[in-house]
């Protein structure tokens, strides 16, 4: 039986004459030489399966070996033609989900990216003077306007910003940091490790829960270049605690001729506290308190693209711009386009929340979330059972971990299929839908699902229903 089936496998040149071969080449825009390569792999896989008796030989003959080969070839083409970086619908309720790309860009930022990518731009060309310009100048004025800083520059993420500041301004010198602020910022990247790589020497002061001004005073030596304060945005220590404020550190740094540097991490430009959300300081507040330099992310609370923004005294920013690492860590034209458009949204405080998806999602009321869940339930077929429940969303991205945003969850289930299988099928579909499982039911938080995405979730659930019917 095995040998008989093997003899039925057509030669490659015969399969190339099949009209389906040319149709696949045309539909997937792939060369015939590459298609032939994948065809040979498909045939080889079937041959190995037959020899190892891993396939149903009788069924193979009934279905038709040619059909099986072209079905396998079609699957390979589908896999190879799909993009690795794919669109995802976020049903987790975590607004700044690091694994899902953090901040969503505004419509204005997206338009600017497309326009900039589609044509040439004055990335490093001064149109007024007709000579070479600097990409640092493109967004510096906007950062100054939004934060009150004397000067600013942008690198590719906040870890890079921290690294550049330490490398350029404190290499082979001492940097004083409280033990309670030696954070790990995700992916096992730690402030202490970044400092070690930069060549700066870490001087730890105080204890995990308590650090006093005299701890800093006693640590200062002739080798000290900087006092660094790290805003602990991704965790909170409560109870018997003590930290030294920027206001108290500023006179000490000034009289000792030291740089006072604060890594803010999340980088809020909009004050969420006036809506009763968290206690995150704004960048402008940090600068007003007297720091020389601040660093913060572009893709967290700012609501823009991945970037590390450095703002502060012109004296220090100018040094950073001239450092060789500034070129290594620089951002491209599309990042600058998105960041410029995002920063311009902050010029109008009355519309910025509605303009930036990150702020809009964080400040979305539970009642507005409920409207979306009701709309979703009304479109769902009887195949699915749903339950609306109170829940909490998170800001995410290592930002304001203590903040719980009241929300409404939909718990979805079906007697015909287990929750884990639904969860997997939603994740593996197109677009991928990321959900959670609570009490053996699929949990969807509509804080992070837009009205426009509801129909897509419904369509995917309908497809799953048909697969199981």
Automatic annotation (TrEMBL):
Its cofactor is pyridoxal 5'-phosphate. Gene3D superfamilies: 3.90.1150.180, Type I PLP-dependent aspartate aminotransferase-like (Major domain). Its EC number is 2.9.1.1. It is an enzyme of class 2 (transferase). It catalyses: L-seryl-tRNA(Sec) + selenophosphate + H(+) = L-selenocysteinyl-tRNA(Sec) + phosphate. Its main location: cytoplasm. The keyword Coiled coil applies. Converts seryl-tRNA(Sec) to selenocysteinyl-tRNA(Sec) required for selenoprotein biosynthesis. This is L-seryl-tRNA(Sec) selenium transferase. The lineage of its organism: Bacteria, Bacillati, Bacillota, Bacilli, Bacillales.
């Amino acid at each position: 039986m095995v040998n008989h089936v093997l003899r039925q496998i057509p030669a490659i040149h015969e399969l190339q004459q099949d009209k389906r071969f040319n149709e696949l080449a045309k539909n997937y825009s792939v060369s015939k030489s590459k298609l032939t390569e994948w065809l040979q792999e498909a045939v080889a896989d079937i041959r190995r399966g037959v020899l190892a008796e891993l396939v149903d030989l009788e069924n193979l003959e009934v279905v038709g070996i040619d059909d099986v080969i072209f079905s396998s070839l079609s699957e390979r083409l589908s896999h190879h033609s799909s993009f690795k970086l794919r669109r995802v619908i976020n049903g987790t309720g975590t607004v700044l989900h690091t694994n899902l790309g953090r901040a969503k860009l505004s419509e204005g930022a997206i338009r600017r990216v497309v326009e900039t990518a589609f044509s040439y731009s004055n990335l490093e060309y001064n149109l007024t003077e007709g000579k070479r310009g600097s990409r640092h100048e493109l967004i510096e004025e906007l950062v100054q306007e939004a934060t009150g800083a004397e000067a600013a520059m942008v690198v590719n993420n906040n870890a890079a910003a921290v690294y550049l500041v330490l490398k350029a301004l404190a290499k082979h010198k001492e940097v004083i940091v409280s033990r309670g602020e030696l954070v790990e910022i995700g992916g096992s990247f730690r402030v202490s490790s970044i400092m070690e790589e930069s060549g700066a020497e870490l001087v730890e002061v105080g204890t995990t829960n308590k650090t006093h001004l005299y701890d800093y005073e006693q640590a200062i030596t002739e080798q000290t270049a900087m006092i660094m304060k790290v805003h602990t945005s991704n965790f909170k220590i409560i109870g018997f605690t003590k930290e030294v404020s920027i206001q108290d550190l500023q006179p000490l740094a000034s009289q000792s001729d030291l740089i006072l540097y604060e890594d803010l991490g999340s980088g809020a430009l909009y004050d969420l506290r006036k809506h009763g959300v968290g206690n995150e300081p704004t960048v402008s507040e940090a600068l007003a308190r007297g720091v020389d330099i601040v660093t913060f992310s572009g893709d967290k609370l700012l609501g823009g693209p991945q970037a590390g923004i450095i703002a502060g005294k012109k004296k220090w920013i100018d040094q950073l711009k001239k450092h060789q690492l500034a070129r290594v860590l620089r951002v491209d034209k599309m990042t600058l386009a998105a960041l410029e458009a995002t920063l311009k949204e902050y010029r109008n405080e009355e519309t910025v929340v509605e303009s930036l998806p990150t702020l809009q999602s964080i400040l979305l009321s539970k009642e507005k979330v409920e409207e979306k869940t009701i709309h979703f339930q009304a479109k769902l077929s009887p195949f699915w059972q749903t339950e609306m429940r109170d829940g909490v969303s998170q800001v995410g991205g290592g930002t304001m971990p203590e903040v719980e945003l009241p929300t409404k969850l939909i718990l979805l289930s079906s007697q015909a299929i287990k929750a884990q299988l639904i969860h997997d099928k939603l994740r593996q579909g197109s677009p991928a839908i990321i959900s959670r499982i609570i009490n053996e039911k699929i949990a969807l938080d509509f804080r992070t699902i837009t009205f426009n995405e509801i129909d897509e979730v419904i369509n995917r659930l309908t497809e799953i229903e048909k697969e199981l019917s």
